[in-house]
Amino acid sequence: MHRKLNSNRSLRIRDLKVEVTNGGVTIDGIVRSARLRSKATKIVSNKSVKRVVNRFVVGN
């Protein structure tokens, strides 16, 4: 998941943290807009992920 998010250059995530437990993914860091925050959730979502907790903060 970490690689998947970092490979998407449009996100430009700062301080990225990814935790995977029991089919859930928690993502944390700083993104530049609410649109990119939503895009990050879509990127990590797949059939094997039961839930995504998006703790990204929108900032510069």
Brief synopsis:
The chain has 60 residues and is α/β, with parallel strands linked by helices. The chain has 2 helices and 4 strands.
Going by CATH, the architecture would be 2-Layer Sandwich
Largest sheet: 4 strands, mixed
CATH level 1 name: Alpha Beta
Q: How much is the average pLDDT?
A: 92
Tally of discrete structural domains: 1
Task: Figure out the total of helices.
Answer: 2
As a whole number of angstroms, the C-alpha radius of gyration is: 11 Å
Q: Secondary-structure element order, as H and E?
A: HEEHEE
The tally of beta strands, per DSSP, is 4
Low-pLDDT runs:
none
Question: Outline, from the CA principal axes?
Answer: globular
What percent of residues are in strands? Answer: 35-45%
* Secondary-structure class: alpha/beta
Distance between the termini: 23 Å
